[in-house]
Amino acid sequence: MKKPNYRNVEGKRCEIIAVDWLLSQGCYTYTPTMEQGPVDIVAISPKGECLFFDVKKASRREDGSIISRTLKDKQKRLGVRLLYVDVETKECHLYPHQFCPFPNSATNAGNRQFNGAKPEAISSLLRQESPPQD
């Protein structure tokens, strides 16, 4: 019997960590039945917002900085957000620089992608007053 492909295994591990983290934040989570679609996780936030995530493993360069990924055009049209997962620490962040130990990473990313504005953190999406009630 052949072993599962390493990249597929790591990707699925990241999705499971992301779902666990979103659940801990009071979200309802749903995973599509199609493996190769534009969205890995659909979440309903405690505020009632529907959020679409494409989950990526946080990959690092030799200097420790995180490698950024990009969304495809269809994902951009759908409002998909990249959710980075560090498999070792189980951290989840919207932008790779939020993992980064370099003090000017957030500023550089803000200038590069957000015209100098501070990029939105995942905590601002999920800040909750109380968890969902059944």
Structure explained in plain terms:
The chain is of the alpha+beta class and about 130 residues long. It is built from 4 helices and 5 strands. It has a 5-stranded mixed β-sheet. The chain is globular and about 45 Å long. The mean pLDDT is about 80.
Write the layout of secondary structure elements.
Elements: H1 6-24, E1 28-30, E2 41-44, E3 50-57, H2 73-78, E4 80-85, E5 92-93, H3 105-113, H4 122-126
Parallel strand pairs: 3-4
Antiparallel strand pairs: 1-2, 2-3, 4-5
Strands in their spatial order, largest beta sheet = 1-2-3-4-5
What do the pLDDT scores average to? 79
Number of strands: 5
Unreliable residue runs: none
Encode the helix/strand succession as letters: HEEEHEEHH
Query: What characteristic shape results from the CA principal axes?
Result: globular
N→C terminal distance: 44 Å
Strand proportion, as a percent range, falls in 15-25%
Largest sheet: 5 strands, mixed
Q: If helices are DSSP runs of H or I spanning 4 or more residues, what is the number of helices?
A: 4
Gyration radius, to the nearest Å?
Answer: 15 Å
Helix content: 25-40%
